[in-house]
Amino acid sequence: MDENLHIRTSTGVELSFELASLGDRLLAWFLDFLLMVAYVFIASMLVTTFMADGGTNAAVVSSILMLPVILYHFLSETLMNGQSIGKRARNIQVVRLDGQQATIGNYAMRALVRLLEIVLLQGSLAMLFIVSSKYGQRLGDVAAGTTVVKVKKQNSMEESLFRDVPETHQVRYPEAVQLSNDDAETLGLLLYELKKSRNEMVLMRMAQDARKRLAGRLGIDSPVHDLDFLNGILDDYNYLQTRA
Prior knowledge:
By secondary structure, the chain is mainly alpha-helical.
């Protein structure tokens, strides 16, 4: 299994995501399992305390109280951008194989197949697929077109994309408004990596490639240095977005 997921973006930059290890995924699952056990215990105590007579009503209430357990992974991944509480604790996240945030449909498919993998087969099939597949995918990931990757620190993402552009900023490239958020995020990540990388030659070539593709796509002919161009595009994008 490759330890990284490599994706070539529309700007020509290849992004690399570190795949979550089997150990991280098992620990995340165990933390989620403990949370669900605690919930079931508390829910059972409530049913026993407040519905001592039992009967049909107790059975109905018990079934309703079990819904959060059944829907836990789907709801948490949907509401927490591809993470459950266990995944967040282990800094891992569900993403699509193209590097984009998974959709509700992706999460739903993972949850449906999870019933087969874990409930019916005690998780043995899931572990087998994770270990043997190219991108560390369990069967649910294969069906949904997703995998699980390690998450970078949130402040790194914020630093890479969201810039404090002054009110007096002069837009040099109005064409930057044509960029998608994904384009801007990719540029931000590239520029962020350039600041802290020791292998500048490789990233400089990536910057040159990204600049060439962006300039061609946006129809911009500018003589400035590659990094100045990319920083200018990103600054203009942020300025134009805040004033759209």
